[in-house]
């Protein structure tokens, strides 16, 4: 049977806008492609068209209407069989995408910046964060603290909002985790992935912290530290780089 994938398994939409649903056929580009909405076969209309370019098959919906929300599927059919993939089209917000660096310049607070895909205005933001208790032998997450925020509706582009919130009252030299959930007129989105961040050590000024992070990045460590990395190991990295920093000043 045909081997197919979808460009996105979840697509945000709003009334009056246009959307494209894309299904990709791998190998046999001569497969017949059928599109369904909520298990009903779709035909072209004045607002709906189907076309293909190479291995990409597209369902285009213009002037999106309330009745267009739902679960779609693309079905590729050839002499060896058929394969189906699913796409959800929803008005709910997309999951939050975090923009903040992992390392705070401050001892007791963190400036969290994130974007959320939503054409309708956002009505409510739920922020959850917790501290990770860590030592040489174990790590244990603390209880989630939750805060309800009134969104500041600043657009980064026509379909995304960008927002910031300062989380205060944090402990120095600590590891925290945060998640975001948002609601618009269509309901709550899926809760975001966990974003991990670190508050500054007492011994580091903001400029020194920037130097440390730059040095660690230049050493080839590109990804944020995993939660398995203890604070002692992180402190060792700081100490090593700060010794280099002190030597450089002399």
TrEMBL record:
GO terms for biological process: homophilic cell adhesion via plasma membrane adhesion molecules; synapse organization. CDD domains: FN3, Ig. SUPFAM superfamilies: Fibronectin type III (SSF49265), Immunoglobulin (SSF48726). Residues 2-90 form the Ig-like domain. GO terms for cellular component: axon; neuronal cell body; plasma membrane. Signal peptide: none annotated. InterPro entries: Cell_Adh-Cytoskel_Orgn, FN3_dom, FN3_sf, Ig-like_dom, Ig-like_dom_sf, Ig-like_fold, Ig_sub, Ig_sub2. One of its GO terms (molecular function) is axon guidance receptor activity. Keywords: Immunoglobulin domain. This is Ig-like domain-containing protein.
């Amino acid at each position: 049977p045909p081997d197919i994938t979808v460009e996105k398994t979840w697509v945000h939409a709003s009334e009056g806008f246009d959307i494209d649903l894309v299904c990709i056929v791998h190998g046999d580009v001569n497969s017949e492609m059928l599109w369904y909405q909520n298990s009903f076969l779709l035909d072209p209309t004045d607002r709906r068209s189907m076309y293909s370019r190479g291995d990409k098959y597209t369902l285009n919906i213009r002037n999106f209407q309330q009745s267009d929300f739902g679960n779609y599927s693309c079905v590729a059919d050839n002499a060896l069989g058929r394969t189906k993939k699913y796409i959800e089209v929803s008005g709910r917000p997309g999951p939050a995408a975090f923009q903040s660096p992992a390392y705070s310049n401050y001892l007791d607070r963190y400036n969290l910046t994130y974007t959320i895909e939503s054409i309708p205005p956002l009505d409510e933001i739920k922020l959850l964060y917790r501290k990770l208790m860590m030592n040489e032998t174990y790590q244990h997450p603390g209880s989630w603290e939750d805060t309800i925020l009134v969104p500041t509706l600043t657009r980064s582009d026509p379909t995304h909002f960008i927002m910031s919130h300062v989380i205060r009252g944090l402990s120095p030299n600590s590891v925290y985790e945060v998640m975001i959930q948002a609601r618009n007129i269509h309901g709550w989105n899926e809760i975001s992935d966990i974003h991990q961040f670190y508050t500054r050590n007492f011994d580091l000024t903001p400029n020194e912290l920037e130097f440390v992070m730059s040095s660690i990045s230049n050493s080839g460590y590109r990804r944020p530290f995993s939660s398995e990395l203890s604070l002692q190991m992180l402190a060792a990295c700081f100490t090593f780089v700060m010794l280099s920093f002190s030597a450089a000043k002399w």
